[in-house]
Amino acid sequence: LRMGLVFRAYDEGCAFRYFIPEQPSFAGFQLMEELTEWRFADDPTCWATLYPDHVNSQEKTYDRMKLSALPKNRLAGMPLLVRTGGQTVALAEACLVNWAGFFFRHRGEGVLRTELSPLPDSPASTPHVAVIRTTPAEGPWRVTMCGDDELDREVSRRIQAASRLQRLSVARPQGGTRTRRPGFAREVPPRLGRDD
Hints:
Layout: E1 4-10, E2 13-20, E3 28-31, E4 37-39, E5 45-48, E6 50-51, E7 63-66, E8 75-76, E9 80-84, E10 87-94, E11 102-108, E12 111-116, E13 131-134, E14 137-138, E15 141-147, H1 149-163, E16 170-171, E17 177-181, E18 184-188
Antiparallel strand pairs: 1-2, 2-14, 2-15, 3-13, 4-12, 5-7, 5-9, 6-8, 9-10, 10-15, 11-12, 16-17, 17-18
């Protein structure tokens, strides 16, 4: 089996993805787990959403805690934010296409490991399989973004503000969108061009 890694590095972070090229005698595969880990030397503060299992709404608040306080029997959703060495680090994934999404599992001693969401039980797959693919195949990007104190406050503010939404806009399928808020209503044209 030939497998590759593709890396990208930026001023604000890095990303990598796995790549399995087309090869003789290996037309496809079933993936049960991925052993990607992030290791933190100290016991940093983190902001995480915790879930009991893979089947959930992905709608929870972020709780602030020490990394060592992440329960090993719970899954942490994405993005996961960690404050370490004067930097805020956001761990996430990108370009998730025909692949299982993942959660973080705290392994102890500052280690976070990916845990892929398994496919629903089906006669077409083996139990606990997360990905069924043919080659060539590439996984999603595993992303690590870094920033200073300002990013820490900005990301935290955005996460908290999103959880305080009281009313949402109502969209009509034909015509345009009417935004309804207390004391505010306006029509939005159905098609806005580049110069509008």
